[in-house]
Every structure is written in C-alpha cells, then in structure tokens.
Design goal:
binds 5-amino-5-deoxy-1-O-phosphono-D-mannitol, alpha/beta, 5-stranded parallel β-sheet, globular, single chain, 362 residues, 14 helices
Length: 362
C-alpha cells in the first residue's frame, strides 16, 4: 500500500521523520538522557571496529567511521562485503565486527559475517529485519525500526541505519571514557532534533523537482563532498544511477585535482554537498575550480554556507543543523534528486531494471 503516494520510494522518503522518531524512542526513551542498548557490547575493551556491508548500507558505515573516530576514539576498518569475505583480514580477540544490512539476507554480507565470526570478540549487526539470517547469527542485533522497505532504492533504511550507528558511536564514546557525560547528552539532544530537520529537508521537494528537470538531460553527473559528506556524495551518485540510469560518480572533493577535474565542461552537472562546517572552505575552493571551468554547479548547503559561497549557478538551502547529524539530513536531497530526475526520465522508480531488493546470491 503506497498510502496515497505515487511510488513506494516516495512513501518511504516521506516516512523518515516518523521512522527516525520511532528508532530514537526505541533506544532512548523521550525523557531519559541515556541510550539503552542491549547489555554486553564490549566497546570498552575493543581496540578496533570492523564494519562491513554492501551498497547503501556500506555508505552508512562509511559515515559512521567518522563518528566512531571522532566521538569514541575507536579505530575503524571498513570494507565492502564482497571484498572482505575473500581477503585475509587480520582479526583478533579484541576486535568487534559490525555488519549493516537492511534485509539482513545479503549473501556477501552474511558470508563476511561468517568469515569474521571465529576471530573476533563479538559480532554485532544493524538490521531492519530482526528475524533475518544476519540478525540471527550475530551476538547482538540492533533493529533500525524502519518498517518494511519495498522500493529497491534504499531511503528510510539508510537514514535509520545512520541514526542507530550514531547512537552506537555515542554509547561507545561514553563507555570508553572518550566522551564526557555532558558531550554525550548534548549529542543525544541533537539526535532528538532529527525528525524536525528531516521534515524541513523534505519540504524542499518542489524546488528539487524543478531543478531535476535539467539534471534529467545530463549524460553524466558528478557528486562531491568532504568528510561525512563524501559518503553522502557516494550515496547520491548510487541513488541516481540506480533509478534514473544516468551515469554518476562521486569523489571526495580533495581528489578533484587528481583526475576527475579533466571531466569538467559546460555539460557536466556537479552536485556539491557542503554544510557550513569546518571543511566548508576547502570544499568551496574545489567547487570554485569547477566553476572556473564553466562546470554547472549545484551547491547544497545552509544559509551561512550559501551566503559565504557567493554566486553559484544553482543552489539548494538546507536547514542549519548541528555537524553531528548533518549527514542524516543531507541524505534527503540526495534521495529527492534521484527520485525526481528519474520521474522526469520516466524510468521505473520502484523496480529499476536489473536490480533486486535483496541480493541473496553473490
Ligand atoms: O539489504 P542490504 O542493506 O544488505 O542491501 C545492501 C544493498 O544491496 C542495497 O543497499 C542497495 O545498494 C540498494 N539498492 C541501494 O539503494
């Protein structure tokens, strides 16, 4: 049931404020200042966290790496499941392994879990389906409470995965004595603001719909971001490829000069994710290199960022949000751009060609 929406993807994007609230309530009751996770996650003794997933779930891990480093002082290793399972990763009894999967049935992710299991202290998972194979084979499975996701393009599962990973990172920081009780409580309070900010981001839909008309004419699109916005750029490019079939690539903005700048011409739309944070100036200087070559830039930023950036051909204003939760809010324009570009092109948004919702074979 699409609940009055044209597509499951539209319904699932619209559900995000409610989903984020449900997941928050499940782990951090509205009045409590703590985060209630299952007992016994060995964060305090861990010397390394290994995160493994595929596709969008992998990008959620990539964002979470910044969080575990910044808020928990925990070393993180990341890999996509299809690579991890055939490597000889150096694992040990003080490592934690964390697998992220919406379906909980992705063949490569499950195989990666089985590959790691005998060598690590604990196997954790972040899943949407609590009865799934990945959940059952984990020591601790953390559900994201997103409800069924039908659209092949993952949307609400991504933002809910990020929220649960954010909570895990904060909890790890507290238990490792890396984050003070005050800093922990401040970050939890920021997480509580997510439903409101995500709703504000969803309100930009009409503007995004109009902008996507031009994007639908493009043959290729480049996405740029730095820090936590780099995985967001990757997610934006993946969404666009999946449902509009436009070739899209994402680069860390600092890599531009190392090759992709050769692609810039008047036809290539370049979408830049850059909230006004500590990396803003760096990203904007890369954006200016694109503009100096007549590249068609769309800057996604907040009021301060847009004011500081000066004249840009296209821009989209996001709410001003705390750095910690920004990647979850900026996921919304990444999704809406792909959705509306695909609608303009008339592709099948919920059932894109060649793709399955759950990849249960290698
Ligand atoms: O069910 P999983 O989260 O394990 O699925 C992983 C990927 O197959 C999935 O995220 C895929 O990349 C999506 N179609 C992205 O929109």
């Amino acid at each position: 049931d699409k609940a009055g929406h044209r597509h499951f993807m539209a319904k699932e994007m619209a559900e995000q404020p409610a989903v984020l609230k449900a997941a928050m309530d499940a782990y951090a009751a509205p009045k409590a200042d703590g985060i209630d996770l299952p007992e016994g996650i060995a964060f305090a003794k861990a010397d390394r966290l290994i995160m493994v997933a595929c596709g969008t779930a992998f990008y959620a891990c990539q964002v979470a790496k910044y969080w575990f480093e910044r808020y928990a002082g925990l070393a993180v290793e990341l890999d996509i499941a299809s690579e991890f399972r055939y490597r000889d990763p150096v694992l040990g009894p003080s490592n934690l392994a964390l697998f992220v999967s919406q379906s909980g049935e992705t063949a490569d992710t499950l195989a990666a879990l089985r590959h790691a299991r005998p060598h690590v202290a604990q196997v954790l998972s972040v899943v949407n389906v609590p009865t799934s194979s990945i959940a059952r084979e984990s020591d601790v499975a953390l559900p994201i409470h997103a409800g069924p996701e039908i659209g092949v393009a993952s949307t609400k599962a991504f933002t809910a995965q990020l929220q649960v990973l954010a909570m895990l990172a904060l909890k790890a920081g507290l238990e490792r004595g890396f984050l003070s009780a005050e800093a922990f409580a401040a970050r939890v309070a920021e997480l509580r603001m997510l439903p409101g900010f995500v709703a504000q981001a969803l309100d930009r839909e009409e503007e995004i719909r109009r902008m996507s008309e031009a994007l639908a004419q493009a043959r290729d699109v480049l996405f740029l971001g730095r820090g936590v916005m780099y995985p967001l750029a990757l997610e934006g490019a993946l969404k666009l490829k999946e449902i509009s079939y436009i070739h899209a690539e994402a680069y860390a903005a600092g890599e531009l000069k190392h090759g992709p700048i050769a692609l810039i011409d008047t036809d290539l739309p370049v979408i830049v994710f850059a909230p006004y944070d500590a990396l803003f100036d760096k990203t904007v200087s890369n954006m200016q290199e694109v503009m100096a070559r007549q590249g068609k830039v769309l800057l996604i930023s907040d009021a301060q960022g847009l004011a500081a950036a000066g004249d840009v051909p296209f821009w989209l204003q996001m709410p001003t949000v705390p750095d910690f939760i920004a990647p979850i809010v900026y996921a919304v324009p990444a999704q809406l751009i792909a959705y509306h570009t695909a609608l303009h092109r008339g592709t099948d948004v919920d059932q894109p060609r060649n793709l399955a919702k759950s990849v249960t074979v290698e």
